[in-house]
Design brief:
The protein is mainly beta. The chain is built from three helices and eleven strands. It has helices at about 50-60, 110-115, 120, and strands at about 1-10, 20, 25, 30, 45-50, 70-75, 85-90, 95-100, 125-130, 130-135, 140. The N and C termini lie close together (about 10 Å).
Length: about 140
C-alpha cells in the first residue's frame, strides 16, 4: 500500500492547531524535532486526507494541521491499519503505529461546528524507528 505525504505540521504547545511547515526532522525514539509531542508516548500523529476531505465539505475553512496532525497522508487508509504496522516514508524514515484514535478531553472547535471530530477515531500515532527528514510530496508506504 503506497501513499504520499500531503502536509507536514508542527506546534510548540498542546491544545493548539499545528501549522504547516516546509519540512520536519524526525529523530529515532523521539518524534519531530521542535514539536510539542516529541519525546512523549504519541511521538507523531498521522491523519488520512481522505478522512479530512468530508469534514472540509462541512467546514470549508479547515486547514492542514487543524486536527493537530503532524503528517497528512493521501492514499493509505490509516485508521484501518493495526497497531504494530510499520510505515516507511521519504528517504528511509521508518515509523510504527502505536495507537489508533485518542480520547477527546474537550470538544474542539471542529466538534462544536460540525458535531463530531475525526481525530479520536481516525487519528494514528506512531513512534519513530528510524529518523530523517520529511516534506510534502514524499512517498509513504506500508511495509
Amino acid at each position: 500500500m503506497n501513499g504520499t505525504i500531503v502536509a507536514v505540521c508542527t506546534s510548540t504547545r498542546t491544545g493548539e492547531k499545528k501549522v504547516p511547515v516546509e519540512s520536519v526532522t524526525l529523530e529515532k525514539d523521539f518524534g519531530i524535532v521542535g514539536d510539542v509531542h516529541g519525546g512523549t508516548g504519541r511521538q507523531v500523529s498521522l491523519l488520512a486526507i481522505e478522512s479530512v476531505d468530508p469534514m472540509r465539505e462541512k467546514m470549508p475553512s479547515l486547514s492542514d494541521g487543524d486536527f493537530a496532525e503532524n503528517l497528512l497522508v493521501r492514499g493509505i487508509p490509516l485508521a484501518r491499519l493495526l497497531v504494530g504496522t510499520r510505515l516507511r516514508a521519504g528517504d528511509g524514515v521508518e515509523l510504527e503505529i502505536t495507537q489508533i484514535g485518542k480520547k477527546c478531553h474537550s470538544k474542539c472547535n471542529i466538534h462544536k461546528t460540525v458535531g463530531y471530530c475525526i481525530m479520536p477515531t481516525e487519528g494514528v500515532f506512531v513512534r519513530v524507528l528510524s529518523g530523517g527528514t520529511l516534506k510534502p510530496g514524499d512517498p509513504v508506504s506500508v511495509i
